[in-house]
Amino acid sequence: MPFGIILLVAVAILIYFGVLHRVLDRMKLNDKTALLFLAIMVVGFFLPAIPLSRSLSINIGGGIVPIILALYLIVTADEAAEKIRAIVASVISGIAVFLAGRLLPAEPDVMIIDPLFAFAIIAGIVAYIFGRSRRGAFIAGIMGILIGDLLYVFGVAGRPIGTVIGGAGVFDATIISGVIAVLLCEIVGETREKLQGGTAKANLNTRKQEEATQNIDTQDDSTQEGDEKNEE
């Protein structure tokens, strides 16, 4: 079974038990919508690819559904800036994957990890850097792999010979990239919030101490004035 399918099932289980509710909420996705997309991706992966030409076809679960999901997230984004950022991040991520395909060794045995995993990691990191939000990073993560695959097919091969967009290894890389992008946003975001929360708490405690000191000084001044009046 492809690793991407295993990862999707694991994510679906976490969503079902509410573990990823906060992450989905920040992406403006509800549990039912997320599970629906995941189910269609799993089922669609095993369906016959849809031919686009004699030599080019697209996998339903690995190509069509991720594109629809990305478009859905872009359209439902609240701010125009986030929509533009997600699109730009997707293009940059795709170019990064394409360049990685040109620069990395062609022989898989030479690399420490499988090239497709390397592409997924690169796309995920680039998507996180330029996507910024969880929604933008996820869009750029999944679209970066597909765009990079298309650039490689038409740019290097010249013409797509028996190519399936979103099939097999590309499907795995697409899922892994999206997960990595969101995971980075979540880890960095949570860490930043905790640090900012700790700083804010420390500042609040400092203010309270200063106010308490001022109150004590005011009380001392009032006491001294009262003593002076009594002596008179």
Automatic annotation (TrEMBL):
Give me the segments passing through the membrane. Answer: 6-24, 33-50, 56-74, 86-104, 110-130, 137-155, 161-185
Q: Which residue ranges are recorded for the region named Disordered?
A: 199-232
According to its UniProt entry, this protein's organism is Thermovenabulum gondwanense
Polar residues composition bias: residue spans: 202-217
Q: Is Acetylation one of the keywords UniProt gives this record? A: no
The protein's name is DUF1614 domain-containing protein
Q: Which domain of life is it from?
A: Bacteria
User: What lineage is this protein's organism placed in?
Assistant: Bacteria, Bacillati, Bacillota, Clostridia, Thermosediminibacterales
Entry's InterPro entries? DUF1614 (IPR011672)
Q: Enumerate composition-biased segments (Acidic residues).
A: 218-232
Q: Which UniProt keywords apply?
A: Membrane, Transmembrane, Transmembrane helix
